[in-house]
Amino acid sequence: MIYSKASLLLSVYCQSYIVSDDVPVSYLKKMEPKLIWLMMFVGVYWAYCIFWGVKGALFSKTSTDYFLAGRSISIWVFVLAATATSFSGWTFIGHPGKIFTTGLPYAFASFYALTIPFTGVLFLRRQWALSKAYHYITPGEMYSDYYGGDAIRLLTVLVAFLFSVPYLGVQLRASGDLFHVLTDGLVGVNFGMFALSAVVVIYVASGGLRSVAYVDCVQCVLLVLGIVILGGIAIHFAGGWSGFVTGIGEMVKTDMSTGEGLTPAGYSSKVAIPGSIQIVSAGSKATGGTWTGMMCMTYMFALMGIQSSPAFSMWAFSNKTSRAFRWQQVAASSVIIGI
């Protein structure tokens, strides 16, 4: 009796936590086909992640196997995985979303496709050579050996922590919001966030870098296909390229006629950068938007930290050959993602 009551309470709690309050009961009884397809694809993807978590755990016999995949990452695996790591959901969803809300000036920040791999050009091949010669496993070992002392090890861990934790937190929260939107409110934000977090912890903690690499390969393919397909869909629903251009023109005409949303030079902020730089006390006080030329440039410079982070040092250590770096930095990042 106690067990049945506990089961009932648990089921009610789970239902109230998983399902949003604004979803009618009748909607749960008859799910739309798009939601069924969504659940199927998410289930297959999560099963793939857990599969590589288990397989990576079976392969990992030493610390080198776990942290560096036995220094055996091939060219194509690194190209796909490093590209997915550099350009993740914030490029797939956040970038077009920001253009939609602020206008085309933010599109000039797309040149981060060049600045992100630039630090990789400077550092990754050199770090790979050092790891081959001295068998480094972590960047802390490399820096400690070069500079001397253990303080640099602690600093490296601190930098990795401060870089990774906020980055992961923002992306996991965004994934919960994405689940909530794609399921029309059927799945709650918190449940989607914690479900994805659990899958990530399982395959990363159990399988190590090998699991991360092969999961990222699929993520890179999905990233490129998603950018191309969704871009085509957006153009289609905008009435084709001519309809898209006409729509932009109408928005510009509206801004010019109302006098709102204009740059300091008198152009529409939907299509024109609001000057090279504006000296203001807060970004919200900038005339015509915050994405000035200086803002775009410093934003791109900040993103150069991705491939100079401690995590990418371990990506460099894990490669079988240094030839993978040129393909990732030039072909994948600058050409494919850039275009």
From TrEMBL:
Q: Where does the UniProt entry say this protein principally localizes?
A: membrane
Compartments it resides in: Cell membrane
Q: Where are the transmembrane segments?
A: 36-54, 75-93, 105-124, 151-169, 189-209, 221-244, 297-317
Provide GO CC annotations from the record.
Answer: plasma membrane
UniProt keyword terms in alphabetical order: Cell membrane, Ion transport, Membrane, Sodium, Sodium transport, Symport, Transmembrane, Transmembrane helix, Transport
Biological process (GO) annotations held by this record are: sodium ion transport
- Write one Pfam family the protein is assigned to: SSF
Membrane protein topology class: Multi-pass membrane protein
> Which Gene3D superfamilies does this chain map to?
Sodium/glucose cotransporter
One molecular function GO term is:
symporter activity
What does the sequence similarity comment in the record state about its family?
Answer: Belongs to the sodium:solute symporter (SSF) (TC 2.A.21) family.
Q: In its UniProt entry, what is this protein called?
A: Sodium:solute symporter family protein
Higher taxonomy = unclassified sequences, metagenomes, ecological metagenomes
